[in-house]
């Protein structure tokens, strides 16, 4: 059935797909326009195979039914969909690769809350399993601005709870178990026998799935396949509103897990994941592991896992991510790449073997096993390392810092600002970048200041305006950028970093150690005065 439509403003994908309030996505033609634009901008759906699934948030199933009917009406050959329209983002990436599909549509607003009053999102991944690169998202956006029709099959809903094959017109719909292929992939990468033995020896873990998509994956992998005690995985049932939680695995939103890990007789190891399962937070008993540090530790110890015994070809991190992993790469004698924020920028590096591991400060790490960051993968690699080293998380962190020095790091977020105010802070600093080198601010001398631009080494594409970076003498850094994943106003992220070595430099309190960098960054940006905020809303 052909439906006449007209362009809807604002359908520009951000850092990771299109994210809007759920009721915006539910408004007439909104989802349909965007999906048709994906098909139109990528050469049409005719004869193609897609993977489809989402994180189970409100509107997930309904959107999946709409997309199936649209794929059928656009001539797609087959859609492989997770049972009940569930698929974690890394599992979807794996299924695209495993089935040599033409692409995938993932329904998620990631770590943003879900529900009728909260957020929904759609991501399109290409045939390599990774998020669509900028050229593709730009083409999709351009199409949304010119669209005048979409196609949808006039059929009843398929039964998404029944595993097996069904049809919509001439299109096959294969409903698959969302977990099994992914779990099998994990078994090829990690020493499940060693981890199982560790659990059998009394090792205790708490995994908080935050009522989001990783629950069924974590239950199967940790409790069933690895023998962790029943109840290891909490908040394990995906709920449409994530049980009212904010499924963002950081100390602020995963405070319940933090409470358990810092309690007397807490578990040995804790972890949490986000809405769609691509993020991870890792905590040892009484030891929080910052994401940039976690990534550096994973890179330094990767050879302990069977899948990475041969070593890493290279690593990549986003520019605002701390430089901790660069020191590991140097010691390993491998390349270290620096990209803009957003997993899509890692795709070419992974595809061409320039990087085996990629990581971000925003609680994301992953490898070339898929083309997305992967929360459970990071947790399993940690477990594999713990099983091999037979040390606690805090001992491993201590040893890492003793060897490489400690990169103190923090992110200060100023959330839900009026767009004009946020732009004002950015524009003002940007206009002064050229004058900053050699200036001393709050006792910190500026070594360099730039508006970060990235040239992809594989396809030569250039991405400008990817964050304002101030490097101080001695290597401390402050980076300022606007979030690309929010749905309300603008969020300024201020990333702060300072490296310290020697036994005295390893045990400081993070914010205290960073205090001179914070003072300099706040003076340079005037962020508190301009925003009228007494301080950041969230500190991670
Ligand atoms: C998404 C991207 C990440 C990126 C993050 C940054 O994460 O996939 O690669 O680091 O956004 O978000 P922001 O632009 O708000 O700083 P996710 O987990 O939301 O898909």
How far is the first residue's CA from the last residue's CA? 49 Å
| Second CATH tier, the architecture of the largest domain | 3-Layer(aba) Sandwich
What order do the strands of the largest sheet run in, or round the barrel if closed? 2-6-5-3-4-9-8
Any idea of the CATH topology of the largest domain?
Answer: Alpha-D-Glucose-1,6-Bisphosphate, Chain A, domain 3
Mean pLDDT: 96
Provide the domain count.
Answer: 3
Summing up helix and strand content along with how strands pair, one would put the structural category as alpha/beta
Ligands in the structure? 1,6-di-O-phosphono-alpha-D-glucopyranose
**Strand count:** 27
Strand residue content: 25-35%
What is the number of helical segments per DSSP (H or I, 4+ residues)?
17
What's the CATH H-level superfamily name of the largest domain? Alpha-D-Glucose-1,6-Bisphosphate, subunit A, domain 3
Shape: globular
Helicity range: 25-40%
* Assembly status: single chain
Q: What is the highest CATH level, the class of the largest domain?
A: Alpha Beta
Major sheet description: 7 strands, mixed
Question: Which radius of gyration do the C-alpha atoms yield?
Answer: 23 Å
Regions with little confidence, pLDDT below 50 for 5+ residues: none
């Amino acid at each position: 059935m052909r439906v006449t439509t007209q362009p809807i403003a604002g359908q520009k994908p951000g850092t990771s797909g299109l994210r809007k309030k759920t009721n915006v996505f539910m408004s007439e033609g909104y989802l349909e326009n965007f999906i048709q634009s994906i098909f139109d901008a990528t050469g049409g759906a005719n004869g193609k195979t897609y993977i489809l699934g989402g994180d189970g948030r409100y509107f997930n199933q309904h959107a999946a039914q709409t997309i199936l009917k649209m794929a059928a009406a656009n001539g797609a050959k087959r859609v492989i969909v997770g049972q009940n329209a569930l698929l974690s983002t890394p599992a979807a990436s794996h299924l695209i690769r495993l089935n040599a599909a033409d692409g995938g549509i993932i329904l998620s607003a990631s770590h943003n809350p879900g529900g009728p009053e909260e957020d929904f999102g759609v991501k399109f991944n290409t045939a390599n399993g990774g998020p669509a690169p900028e050229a593709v998202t730009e083409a999709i956006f351009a199409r949304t601005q010119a669209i005048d029709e979409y196609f949808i099959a006039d059929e009843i809903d398929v039964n998404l709870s029944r595993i097996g094959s069904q049809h919509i017109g001439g299109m096959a719909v294969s409903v698959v178990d969302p977990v099994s292929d992914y779990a099998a992939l994990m078994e090829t990468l990690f020493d499940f026998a060693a981890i199982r033995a560790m659990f059998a020896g009394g090792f205790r873990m708490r995994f908080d799935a935050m009522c989001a998509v990783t629950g069924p994956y974590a239950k199967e992998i940790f409790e069933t396949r690895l023998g962790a005690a029943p109840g290891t995985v909490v908040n394990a049932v995906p709920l449409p509103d994530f049980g009212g939680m904010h499924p963002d695995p950081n100390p602020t939103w995963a405070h319940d897990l933090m409470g358990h890990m810092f309690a007397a007789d807490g578990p040995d190891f804790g972890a949490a994941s986000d809405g769609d399962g691509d993020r991870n937070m890792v905590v040892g008993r009484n030891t929080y592991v910052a994401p940039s540090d976690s990534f550096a530790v994973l890179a330094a110890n990767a050879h302990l896992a069977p899948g990475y015994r041969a070593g890493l070809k290279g690593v990549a991190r986003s520019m605002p991510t701390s430089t901790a992993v660069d020191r590991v790469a140097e010691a390993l004698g491998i390349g270290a790449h620096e990209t803009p924020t957003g997993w899509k920028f890692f795709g070419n590096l992974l595809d061409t073997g320039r990087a085996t591991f990629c990581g971000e400060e925003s609680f994301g790490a992953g490898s070339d096993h898929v083309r997305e960051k992967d929360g459970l993968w990071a947790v399993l690699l940690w477990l594999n390392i713990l099983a091999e080293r037979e040390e606690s998380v805090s001992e491993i962190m201590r040893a890492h810092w003793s060897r490489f020095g400690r990169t103190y790091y923090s992110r200060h977020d100023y959330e839900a600002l009026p767009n004009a105010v946020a732009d004002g802070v950015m524009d003002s600093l940007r206009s002064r970048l050229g004058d900053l080198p050699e200036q001393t601010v709050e006792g910190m001398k500026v070594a360099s200041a730039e508006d970060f631009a990235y040239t992809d080494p594989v396809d030569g594409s250039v991405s400008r305006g990817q964050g304002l970076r101030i490097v101080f003498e001695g290597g401390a850094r402050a980076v300022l950028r606007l979030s690309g994943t929010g749905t309300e106003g603008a969020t300024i992220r201020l990333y702060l970093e300072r490296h310290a070595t020697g036994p005295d430099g390893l045990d400081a309190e993070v914010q205290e150690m960073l205090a001179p960098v914070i003072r300099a960054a706040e003076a340079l940006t005037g962020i508190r005065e301009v925003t009228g905020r007494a301080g950041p809303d969230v500190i991670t």
